[in-house]
Amino acid sequence: MHVIVFVAPYFTENARRFIQVTASLPGVALGLISQDPIDFLPAEIRALVRAHVRVGDGLDADHLVGAARQIEKELGPLHRILGVIEQIQEPLAEARARLGLAGMSADVARSFRDKTRMKDALRAAGLPVARHRLVIDDEAALRFAGEVGYPLVVKPPAGAASQDTFRADDDASLRKALVGARSGGGGAVLLEEFVTGEEYSFDGLILNGKVGFQSVSHYDPAPLTVMQNPWIQWMVVLPREVDAPDFDAIKAAGTRSLAVLGLETGMWHMEWFRRR
Q: Which end of the chain is more exposed for a tag (fewer CB within 10 A), N or C?
């Protein structure tokens, strides 16, 4: 049996699905680490969990390492430790290194999590990236606005999806957006030029450096528009066929990005704009 440790700080609906599927894999003995008590899981999922450790902070590498070692004492040598939410990838990678387990390294995880670092790496490799800058104070933000022009996108450097993301159309709205974005970024804020066009996501699975599955979906309208207008019911359109020439540039850029950022095995999700 392979002992797999799954980390889910909270038992969201999505987390429950991943826990159930992982625990049901042939030859897997599942150990679970969470902040939520195990009783929060439905009985049919609890029955699949071989060991559970509750921690105070599911995003802290020290807590994860300690809990994983408890599971190892109970179930035997660990094979993998994993989780699916974006915010947990860096502490997971650090725990993985300390436990001597295979998987994505902390350096690679940081390249995906830190959007400034990611954009710098992609731009250096010749991939198309919106002009951006990490700023600490309002003066630096206003200088960038003077260089690039409005509108701007304002967000934390390590945000997820469109959380704490704002559009600034002038100096006043930029100052206001900086306050909101700082709440999710520890002080530093990432500014980007506002690129108009059609927004797509590029998702896939990669195993030992080879892409085994990929898909393209189209956001209609763009997520930032939805964040600014909560009444909008947006759509994610998944074409049945993704071999059309219209998607060639997106797929080529997405595959190239994986090589630049160093992902060898895993699932990934990236967003792309096609300029109008």
A: C
Distance CA 194, CA 196 (A): 6
**CA 77 to CA 71: how far, in whole Å?**
9
DSSP result, 79-125: EEEE--SGGGHHHHHHHHHHHT--S--HHHHHHHH-HHHHHHHHHHT
Measured CA to CA, the distance from residue 65 to residue 11 in angstroms comes to 20
The phi and psi torsions of 10 (rounded to 5 degrees) equal: -130, 145
Closest CA to 158 of 118, 120, 130, 185: 185
Alpha-carbon span 162 to 153, nearest angstrom: 11
Q: What digits encode the pLDDT tens for the residues 37-84?
A: 999 999 999 999 999 999 999 999 999 999 999 999 999 999 999 999
H helix intervals, the chain: 13-23, 43-46, 61-75, 89-99, 106-113, 115-124, 138-148, 171-182, 223-228, 248-261
Going by C-alpha positions, the residue among 184, 182, 151 that lies closest to residue 168 is 151
H/E element, 128: none
Strands 189-193 and 197-207: what pairing? unpaired
pTM of the model: 0.80
Chunked in runs of 10, what are the mean pLDDT values of the chain (276 residues)? Answer: 97 97 97 98 97 97 98 98 93 97 93 88 91 92 96 80 78 92 74 86 87 86 81 88 83 87 86 74
Q: What is the amino acid identity at position 266?
A: G
